[in-house]
Amino acid sequence: MTKQHANWSPYDNNGGTCVAIAGSDYCVIAADTRMSTGYSILSRDYSKIHKLADKAVLSSSGFQADVKALQKVLKSRHLIYQHQHNKQMSCPAMAQLLSNTLYFKRFFPYYAFNVLGGLDEEGKGCVFTYDAVGSYERVGYGAQGSGSTLIMPFLDNQLKSPSPLLLPKQDSNTPLSEAEAVDLVKTVFASATERDIYTGDKLEIMILKADGIKTELMDLRKD
Amino acid sequence: MKLDTSGFETTMPVIGFGSNSEMLDGVSSVPSFDLPRTTDFDGFQKKSVEMVKPAKGTTTLAFIFKEGVMVAADSRASMGGYISSQSVKKIIEINPYMLGTMAGGAADCQFWHRNLGIKCRLHELANKRRISVSGASKLLANMLYSYRGMGLSVGTMIAGWDETGPGLYYVDNEGGRLKGDRFSVGSGSPYAYGVLDSGYKFDMSIEEASELARRSIYHATFRDGASGGVASVYHVGPQGWTKLSGDDVGELHYHYYPVAPATAEHVMEEAA
């Protein structure tokens, strides 16, 4: 008798793209607002960016139900941390928490492709990029999601920062100003929208600085 | 078919993730993992690996010589055919006198090396002395053995300097543990072995050994598509480890094989 295979998969891909760029004293996190399933659009107005702490903002594409569950876990762990330590979690600490949270579901992964952005203890921008099971590294810029393969080569070309592994050590954050980085993000999403069916509708941009978070919305093609 | 869960039973108390223990949150003993409720565990794992495409692919090497241990690795991570990163840290600093290398699944290696670092620190606190390389590699091998067959992908080398001198062990996800003085792990390892084995002498100086390690990684990145980025070289001596170099392999290529400018035979004259 042939083996019965599951006709039902616990996963679905809701599409979308997330990008983050780290600067000398700011961090830009952006994501489109389209949520889809198969060839249908579920929502044109779904935010993929979530503020976890004052200095740490998470943007995730993939299966949004898993993203919501992941976000809940991180929020509750952050609350416990605040009660125990009387302060907010720093971005590098949140980065490791996210990595451990993802790895604890190593055998039934969160189908979530994450980019974590924020400011480190020195006030410099930091971006952490993840795979679905929790391997992470600090980078100068990152993109995840359906449009990431279209966006990354362009960011490599415009922002190519020296690898953090080179010796003598060089700074991998971009020297661009905040306005230039936001402009770059808008350009990049406009291009990705042209060629990726899962990216479009609206672009949500969050700019994190030491004095607070600013949000901007831009229209993208709706087709 | 009933899943054989005897590997999960331990004598230590299992502190699961999410329970509020004052100590480390579930990372000190055997972490309890969520398992999918399916009759076909292996099929599910196979499909989920194809779907999430965890980052892997690599060249790492390490060898013992007169002055200690030399450890080197590339820095490329690939997800399927896409290069997800050119700047992955594949040489993991477990503590100031021990290094671990990463090959296979990036998340698996990062997590288990971090876990090993915690265990080594606990050993130091409990026994008032540093753990030996042999002991550390045994801890890691036993952890991985208890997850044997579940799809972890870890091919690592533990290199360090303890009371008995330099130590080098190879540990993999099957639970295998080998003591040796020359190893290379990863998709680019055949190429690295070629250069490493032909140039190896026990009585090398640190400069010669680091140059040999760098060249071996460079040649592996040249021929293996899944290896590339930055070639990092570390040395472990009696005082601990130091990072000797980190060079972009693209630049190393022209350093080893400089392009001679073509001599012009005919010079084009401007038409009058």
UniProtKB/TrEMBL annotation, chain A:
The record's listing under InterPro entries reads: Ntn_hydrolases_N (IPR029055), Proteasome_bsu_CS (IPR016050), Proteasome_sua/b (IPR001353), Proteasome_suB-type (IPR023333)
> Which Gene Ontology CC terms are recorded?
cytoplasm; nucleus; proteasome core complex
Q: Which Pfam families match?
A: Proteasome
UniProt entry keywords in alphabetical sequence: Cytoplasm, Nucleus, Proteasome
Q: Where in the cell is it found?
A: Cytoplasm; Nucleus
Chief place of localization: cytoplasm
Gene Ontology biological process terms from the UniProt entry? proteolysis involved in protein catabolic process
| The keyword Nucleus is annotated on this UniProt entry | yes
- What function does the entry list? Component of the proteasome, a multicatalytic proteinase complex which is characterized by its ability to cleave peptides with Arg, Phe, Tyr, Leu, and Glu adjacent to the leaving group at neutral or slightly basic pH. The proteasome has an ATP-dependent proteolytic activity. Non-catalytic component of the proteasome, a multicatalytic proteinase complex which is characterized by its ability to cleave peptides with Arg, Phe, Tyr, Leu, and Glu adjacent to the leaving group at neutral or slightly basic pH. The proteasome has an ATP-dependent proteolytic activity.
Family, per the entry?
Answer: Belongs to the peptidase T1B family.
Record's subunit section:
Component of the proteasome complex. Component of the 20S core complex of the 26S proteasome. The 26S proteasome is composed of a core protease (CP), known as the 20S proteasome, capped at one or both ends by the 19S regulatory particle (RP/PA700). The 20S proteasome core is composed of 28 subunits that are arranged in four stacked rings, resulting in a barrel-shaped structure. The two end rings are each formed by seven alpha subunits, and the two central rings are each formed by seven beta subunits. The catalytic chamber with the active sites is on the inside of the barrel.
Could you tell me what this protein is called?
Proteasome subunit beta
Q: What is the lineage of its organism?
A: Eukaryota, Viridiplantae, Streptophyta, Embryophyta, Tracheophyta
From TrEMBL, chain B:
Q: Which SUPFAM superfamilies match?
A: N-terminal nucleophile aminohydrolases (Ntn hydrolases)
Give the reactions, separated by semicolons, that this protein catalyses: Cleavage of peptide bonds with very broad specificity
Q: Where in or outside the cell is it found?
A: Cytoplasm; Nucleus
Domain of life of the organism in this record?
A: Eukaryota
Q: Does the keyword Cytoplasm apply?
A: yes
Q: Which InterPro entries match?
A: Ntn_hydrolases_N, Pept_T1A_subB, Proteasome_bsu_CS, Proteasome_sua/b, Proteasome_suB-type
Q: Does the keyword Thylakoid apply?
A: no
Q: What is its main location?
A: cytoplasm
One matching Pfam family, short form?
A: Proteasome
Keyword list, A-Z: Cytoplasm, Hydrolase, Nucleus, Protease, Proteasome, Threonine protease, Zymogen
Q: Name one GO cellular component term.
A: proteasome complex
Q: Which family, according to UniProt?
A: Belongs to the peptidase T1B family.
**Record's subunit section:** Component of the 20S core complex of the 26S proteasome. The 26S proteasome is composed of a core protease (CP), known as the 20S proteasome, capped at one or both ends by the 19S regulatory particle (RP/PA700). The 20S proteasome core is composed of 28 subunits that are arranged in four stacked rings, resulting in a barrel-shaped structure. The two end rings are each formed by seven alpha subunits, and the two central rings are each formed by seven beta subunits. The catalytic chamber with the active sites is on the inside of the barrel. Component of the proteasome complex.
Role played: Component of the proteasome, a multicatalytic proteinase complex which is characterized by its ability to cleave peptides with Arg, Phe, Tyr, Leu, and Glu adjacent to the leaving group at neutral or slightly basic pH. The proteasome has an ATP-dependent proteolytic activity. The proteasome is a multicatalytic proteinase complex which is characterized by its ability to cleave peptides with Arg, Phe, Tyr, Leu, and Glu adjacent to the leaving group at neutral or slightly basic pH. The proteasome has an ATP-dependent proteolytic activity.
Protein name as it appears in the record: Proteasome subunit beta
This chain's source organism reads: Camelina sativa (False flax)
